[in-house]
Design a protein that fits this description.
By secondary structure, the protein is mainly α. It has one domain. It is 90% helix and 0% strand. It is built from three helices and no strands. The protein is elongated and about 60 Å long. It starts with a helix and ends with a helix.
């Protein structure tokens, strides 16, 4: 069943706002955790707490775009926009594949 264009446009506009907030929150959280890791590193030198905190900050930063792709997938699925569902799945596979190959 197709939705009216106005409803689809409103849903896409909400998606853009939500994705913007998601990206901002992810980057802000990663920056806070990385800053904490740097503070620990400067205060106590290279040690397990500083190293772990910096690693967690980097993982949060790497997962932020992945979270955007997952959120987009959910919205496009609800809108039954199968072209973008397929495109989002391909982007997800490429991101995960690149991440796994890098590890």
């Amino acid at each position: 069943m197709n939705r009216p264009p106005e409803e689809t446009d409103a849903a896409l506009e909400r998606l853009e706002r939500q994705l913007g907030r998601l990206l901002n929150a992810g980057v802000l959280l990663a920056a806070i955790v990385l800053a904490l890791g740097l503070i620990l590193w400067f205060a106590w030198g290279t040690g397990r707490p500083a190293s772990l905190t910096l690693t967690v900050g980097l993982v949060i930063l790497m997962l932020t775009p992945l979270a955007r792709v997952v959120a987009s997938f959910v919205v496009y699925w609800r809108l039954r926009d199968w072209f973008f569902v397929g495109t989002t799945v391909m982007v997800f596979v490429v991101l995960v594949g690149a991440w796994l190959l890098k590890s």
